[in-house]
Amino acid sequence: MSQQTVNGVPSRGKVLTLDNMNPNVKRVEYAVRGPIVQRAVQIEKELKEGVKKPFSEVIKANIGDAHAMGQKPITFLRQVLALCSYPELLEDNKFPEDAKKRAKRILQACGGHSIGAYSASQGIECVRQDVARYIEKRDGGISSNPDNIYLSTGASDAIVTMLKLLVCGEGRDRTGVMISIPQYPLYSAALADLGAVQVSYYLDEDKCWSLDVAELRRSLNAARQHCNPRVLCIINPGNPTGQVQSRQCIEDVIRFAKEEHLFLMADEVYQDNVYAEGCKFHSFKKVLFEMGPEYSSTVEMASFHSTSKCYMGECGFRGGYMEIINMDPEVKAQLTKLVSVRLCPPVPGQALLDLVVNPPQPDEPSYTTFMKERTVVLADLAEKARLTEQIFNKVPGITCNPVQGAMYTFPRITLSQKAIDKAKEEGQVPDMFYCMKLLEEEGICLVPGSGFGQREGTFHFRMTILPPTEKLKVVLHKISEFHLRFTQEFS
Amino acid sequence: MCAGNKLQNFRVKSLVSVMVCSLTSHPLSSSPGRALSSLSATRRGLPKEKMSENGVSSRAKVLTIDTMNPTVKKVEYAVRGPIVQRAVELERELSEGIKKPFAEVIKANIGDAHAMGQQPITFFRQVLALCSYPELLNDSTFPEDAKSRARRILQSCGGNSMGSYSASQGIDSVRQDVARYIERRDGGVPCDPDNIYLTTGASDGIVTMLKLLVCGEGATRTGVMISIPQYPLYSAALAELGAVQINYYLNEEKCWSMDISELQRALDEARRHCNPRALCIINPGNPTGQVQSRQCIEDVIRFAAKERLFLMADEVYQDNVYADGCQFHSFKKVLFEMGPEYSNTVELVSFHSTSKCYMGECGFRGGYMEIINMDNEVKAQLTKLVSVRLCPPVPGQALMDLVVNPPQPGEPSYENFIKERTATLSALAEKAKLTEQVLNTVQGISCNPVQGAMYSFPRITISAKAVKEATDKGQQPDMFYCMKMLEETGICLVPGSGFGQKDGTYHFRMTILPPTDKLKILLNKVKEFHQKFTQQYT
């Protein structure tokens, strides 16, 4: 037991210290809210206290948080939520009938007609039914069973739960999980927390961050030397890379998963965020079922969706769902048991998800406004995606793939040897050094590429395209100028 | 073997196995042989062939009961276990017109106040509606204090919207309000908002803290002391984390009170096979309803200091105290009143939630924890860990803010708020008394006073004949009892075995939440059932 002496009085060490805490937790890293964001929050505080900076506000382009960037909530969604929160408003004639109808339906499905009651652990039944119908419509009629839908606390919750189910074995038998590099760091964080083996496969930056089955195979074979790879995770549209996978690519991945006996996890939270011409979102489930029963009745898969992205951007409600396909019934019973321990996902988030999968219909009073609001958000995003690519690609030393979908750009930046050496001197990875400097000089908060993973010797950052167009232009120009300055300083 | 059978079998065994396994072996070391063979096969990329179906060979699933996470299999959560699943089935059958000896299923298994008809507090819901749809801020029908709360909350949200992520630790202004609430509650003992973490219900905070604490292998594996009976979130979380569950028994004869010599016994025994590092207390008690005396809390703190245990105080029922002479004392307040020798050293975390007390807002999943004397480096790790899940649900955070900062005297909503709050709490107090009284009139049921919380945990006498029949059916005797009660009366309770109990004793947990009239009917039905059951098995 460690004993220290403070002011001559022997004091015992804490019960819980860095040395005797859960070692897996120590290995967890989550760059999206890492040191750079902590510094950004500090700088904001300093600005508020009147400390002089070369900028007047901090722009947080580190996270896909649409409302924080000024995107307005969809009126219909919020009307229904207000009605559910305070049902006395159902008497108020300011609210449209379709909003009232949705609210009544949701409340009727809640215990005691209150969103304050726990729901079933798997989620409110009628919401799960609506989700299933939404998936059927999305996938051209392929059937979806509400029993296979699990509502969740954001998509993150469901992803971690699925990974948790999959992890077993020790040493060479320990479960390996294939994730893309670059990846969304929830995956690496969850794998560290669970003590699973991260198996990295690289996306091809030169081909617009596309996924290549040969690379999957290389990575799998290498991993089989030291662990038991059982899961393949895909993010489509990609985060942080913004690529949208072709139907052909998805077919290849499914074939690969079947051949190699892998459980597929398809993170499809950006399914409405597709901007590039010629690109289209194809759900893994639809492609799976179009490949015929040989695949659709065997390949095990979970697909994730959320209320946080797309045109809604309702991150704070922590709504989401997953659909499981071909899961072993005994495992499914275990899954149901496991989620019951946390009682239920937040009910306001469940209500919101219901509205997302069951929005106003053409003959309903809110339809026109809803479509207008939705279209404006998505059209703006498409424009900002283009703008970002164009401006960055004009800067010598920055190359940027088209932002085909999702909400981020992940441009490659050239850093000179001198800059790299300087970073090393400061004990930082080079792109962290770059981003930290950008934050201090311009007040722009990005996430260094190293937080997502990248090929050795390459450097990137992730930036959301969410700021309002005018502000985004300013951000892009500031970054361009900074990059030129930085390049000069370290040439 | 049919899957259903296998599952049931597993369930019966596993309660035992949680206790045994957690005491004897590391959870990851117990893979059955067939699981191993299938693992090594898949590792080589040669998935094992399953039986031949219609001449076509079909491969086994990637993820099967044999190849899934073994710690997940050990998780048990009786509050939503098989009896509740059967209750849901019965409800469906009733709605399909199938005849039953009852007209409705009464779910007294879970502390879900609104589901039992309790009305939400008007003020809370007004503010939540305003936050959801800020256009209502122009609506003159909403009181000014509700509007000013809503504005304050919205101003601390990114883009003035509840749809933004908050800081992972929770909204700054909410954490400040929580800190001030704690200071008021604890007679001025200071509270730093930096030590407040908002959570997704208290469950989330509890699991996060346990996760931080778990380390070591074999005899150095972290052990966590929990009461028996306990709230099964604890045993479930420990099973999942592969930590060692250390049981200390509450004293049923002394109103479920806690006894230091029993803590010492449990600790000394556990030290032989694990490294006990944390002591969990639920006060007021779930499922037992006892309220700890100030003296008892002092003793516990002294014990934790002496034995170097991290204290976890689950205080989600802090407003639910009914019995004369009982009062809620927070662990933090007592800790600080014991002087710097304790208040500077004992590591403590305390949990609260929006789901219980007079609010009963379970669906919003609001909650917080306060950490005290946590090592700075560990705190940084905690902050990092919670950041991965981005943030607790913002509507739950907003609700938490209202709970800790309710209408004040002089504000327009004050009177109505106090009226609603008082009505709920005094109805609960009445129901607590009623439950104890009625159950104690039944021969073969003995029930401690429900001093606090929301449950009664009466002891039931089950005859040897009934025990035998249950055993023959492969059920725990109290599960057999509760299942039979459900089928015959439509009342859904949770068997005591789901919470843990002394060997050879049997209990059930029942919430006292149904409206008084319904509760009376329910209690009488329980009474009649028990008499019939006793007669049937004499």
Q: What does this molecule look like?
A:
The complex is a heterodimer of chains A (491) and B (538). With 491 residues, chain A is of the alpha/beta class. Chain A folds into 2 domains: 159 residues, Aspartate Aminotransferase, domain 1, CATH 3.90.1150; 256 residues, Type I PLP-dependent aspartate aminotransferase-like (Major domain) (Aspartate Aminotransferase, domain 2, 3-Layer(aba) Sandwich), CATH 3.40.640. Chain A has 17 helices and 16 strands. In chain A, the strands form 4 sheets. In chain A, strands 4-10-9-8-7-5-6 form a 7-stranded mixed sheet, with helices on both faces. In chain A, β7, α9 and β8 form a beta-alpha-beta unit. Chain B is α/β, with parallel strands linked by helices and 538 residues long. Chain B contains 19 helices and 16 strands. Chain B has a 7-stranded mixed sheet, sandwiched between helices. In chain B, strands 11, 12, 13, 15 and 16 form a 5-stranded antiparallel sheet that branches. In chain B, β1 and β2 form a beta hairpin. In chain B, α16 runs parallel beside α19. Chain B is globular. Chain B starts with a helix and ends with a helix. Chains A and B meet through α1, α3, α6, α7 and β7 of A and α1, α2, α3, α5 and α8 of B. Chain A: It catalyses: L-alanine + 2-oxoglutarate = pyruvate + L-glutamate. Chain A: Its cofactor is pyridoxal 5'-phosphate. Chain A: Pathway: Amino-acid degradation; L-alanine degradation via transaminase pathway; pyruvate from L-alanine: step 1/1. Chain A: This is Alanine aminotransferase 1. Chain A: One of its GO terms (biological process) is L-alanine catabolic process.
Write the layout of secondary structure elements.
The complex is a heterodimer of chains A (491) and B (538).
Chain A: E1 3-6, E2 9-12, H1 23-27, H2 35-48, E3 59-60, H3 75-85, H4 97-108, H5 125-138, E4 149-153, H6 154-166, E5 175-181, H7 186-194, E6 197-202, H8 213-223, E7 228-235, H9 247-259, E8 263-267, H10 284-290, H11 293-296, E9 301-306, E10 319-325, H12 329-340, H13 347-357, H14 367-393, E11 398-399, E12 408-409, E13 412-413, H15 417-425, H16 430-442, E14 444-445, E15 447-448, E16 459-464, H17 469-489
Parallel strand pairs in A: 3-14, 5-6, 5-7, 7-8, 8-9
Antiparallel strand pairs in A: 1-2, 4-10, 9-10, 11-13, 12-16, 13-16, 15-16
Helix pairs in contact in A: 2-16, 3-4, 3-13, 5-13, 6-7, 14-17, 15-16, 16-17
Chain B: H1 3-24, H2 33-43, E1 49-53, E2 56-59, H3 70-74, H4 82-95, E3 106-107, H5 122-132, H6 144-155, H7 172-185, E4 196-200, H8 201-213, E5 222-228, H9 233-241, E6 244-249, H10 260-270, E7 275-282, H11 294-307, E8 310-314, H12 331-337, H13 340-343, E9 348-353, E10 366-372, H14 376-388, H15 394-404, H16 414-440, E11 445-446, E12 455-456, E13 459-460, H17 464-472, H18 477-489, E14 491-492, E15 494-495, E16 506-511, H19 516-536
Parallel strand pairs in B: 3-14, 5-6, 5-7, 7-8, 8-9
Antiparallel strand pairs in B: 1-2, 4-10, 9-10, 11-13, 12-16, 13-16, 15-16
Helix pairs in contact in B: 4-18, 5-6, 5-15, 7-15, 8-9, 16-19, 17-18, 18-19
